[in-house]
Design brief:
The protein is α/β, with parallel strands linked by helices. It folds into 2 domains: 11-177, Rossmann fold; 183-384, Dehydroquinate synthase-like - alpha domain (Dehydroquinate synthase-like, alpha domain), CATH 1.20.1090. It has helices spanning 46-53, 71-83, 95-109, 117-120, 183-201, 209-231, 236-248, 263-275, 279-293, 295-310, 317-334, 351-361, 375-384; strands at 11-14, 31-35, 58-62, 88-94, 131-137, 147-152, 157-162, 170-173. Strands 1-8-5-4-2-3 form a 6-stranded parallel β-sheet. Helix 10 packs across helix 11 (317-334). The radius of gyration is 20 Å and the shape is globular. The model has no long low-confidence stretch (mean pLDDT 97).
């Protein structure tokens, strides 16, 4: 196991009716900016619960943060923060709203002229404006980590940011919110969480036995609950397990002491930037080809995964590894997610070359857990995903 440090300061408030406890977590003198997306929170009752909980606070609102939080929209929210003397941010939404709020948390205290530099220059945020979250769409795990991904439509860029100053102060997780989520978004959440675990697990063994077992338990739980949560989002027991899996998949715990990959995400972000494909679906598009291309360096963990998660007992390590890849692709299909780029767009010729160039231009010339995947490799992997 590798050396590591671990600190996660986010307070999780989990369960039915917990939104009412929000006022206990926010300073009484705070000027709050409430941030949300397309307005679904006003239809499903979450907005009313939040407003009731914060009836004694001064609140400004900013809605309309889109899926793949857009820099131009967030700039407008930043102006509200500055002109209204906001001191606390509250994200009520899924990963996009929370990621957008993290950018605002950083940008609000940024001393430079252009806040896009935070992403462009990979400036870690040591201190941000404090914020909390009310999770409405389990998927990204952003409610309990310090990372974010922001899109800039005019340049077709999708860049990452983070730092120790971007952990939420608190996150409220009420599984009842799952009952109002469309089936497509449930499927995306399952795929997103599953791939988050894959990126931290599917590398090579380092003797981190507990991290492996926790990761495998998240895989197994997602596989077990997927049919039920897709069929009946109002099943509270299943929704609870779904929500907690998504959070545990990316709160930092299972990545400590182990090598991590993230090449699938780096390539997938470019597919979203170029074509607007749902983030989770870009991951599904690239997973099979990435693992097939790198099977020699990943086969020990792929075989272990096939054995422990999918119950594969027959065959050599190479054969089990191949089955592990096939089972993963099959899981995506089972939740209604297609896994070839040509199933999303007919305009894919040249995509692999463009993605390889984009990563090269950003200095991502040695990605993956071994730091050996070059733009040439990226082009081959993306081509395999056509």
């Amino acid at each position: 196991m590798k050396n590591f440090e671990f600190k996660n300061p986010t307070k999780i408030i989990f369960g039915e009716g917990q939104i009412s406890k929000m006022a206990n977590e926010i300073p009484k003198e705070a000027n709050i900016l409430l941030l949300y997306g397309g307005g679904s929170i006003k239809k499903n009752g979450i907005y009313a619960q939040v407003k009731t909980a914060l009836k004694d606070y001064t609140i400004e609102e900013f809605g309309g943060i889109p899926t793949n939080p857009e820099f131009a929209v967030l700039e407008k929210a930043l102006q509200v923060i500055k002109t209204k003397n906001i001191t606390f941010l509250l994200a009520v939404g899924g990963g996009s709203v929370i990621d957008g709020t993290k950018f605002l948390s950083s940008a609000a205290l940024y001393k430079g002229e252009d806040p896009w530099a935070i992403l462009q220059n990979k400036i870690p945020t040591q201190k941000g404006m404090p914020f909390g979250t009310v999770l409405t769409l389990p998927a990204t795990g952003s409610e309990m980590n310090s990372g974010a991904v922001i899109t800039r439509a005019e340049t077709k860029q999708k860049l990452t940011m983070g730092g120790p100053g971007l952990f939420p102060v608190f996150s409220i997780l009420d599984p009842n919110v799952v009952s109002s989520i469309p089936e497509r978004q449930i499927a995306n959440g399952l795929a997103d969480a599953f791939t988050h675990v894959l990126e931290q697990y599917m590398t090579y063994p380092v003797g981190a036995l507990l991290q492996d077992r926790i990761a495998e338990s998240i895989f197994q739980t997602l596989i077990e609950i997927a049919p039920t949560i897709l069929k009946d989002q109002s099943d509270y027991k299943t929704a609870s397990n779904f929500m907690w899996c998504c959070t545990m998949a990316l709160n930092g715990l299972i990545q400590k002491g182990v090598p991590t990959d993230w090449a699938i995400h780096m390539m997938g972000h470019e597919l979203t930037a170029l074509y607007g494909i749902d983030h989770a679906r870009t991951l599904a598009i690239l997973t099979g080809s990435h693992y097939t291309y790198n099977i020699e360096t990943k086969k020990e963990k792929l075989a272990q995964y096939a054995e422990r998660v999918w119950g594969v007992t027959e065959g050599t390590i190479d054969e089990k590894a191949a089955v592990g890849i096939a089972k993963t692709v099959g899981f995506f299909h089972s939740i209604g997610i297609k896994t070839k780029l040509s199933e999303y767009t007919k305009d894919f010729n040249g995509t692999a070359t463009e993605i390889a160039k984009r990563l090269k231009d950003r200095g991502m010339t040695a990605i993956g857990e071994h730091g050996k995947l070059t733009p040439v490799d990226v082009e081959k992997i993306v081509t395999m995903a056509y």
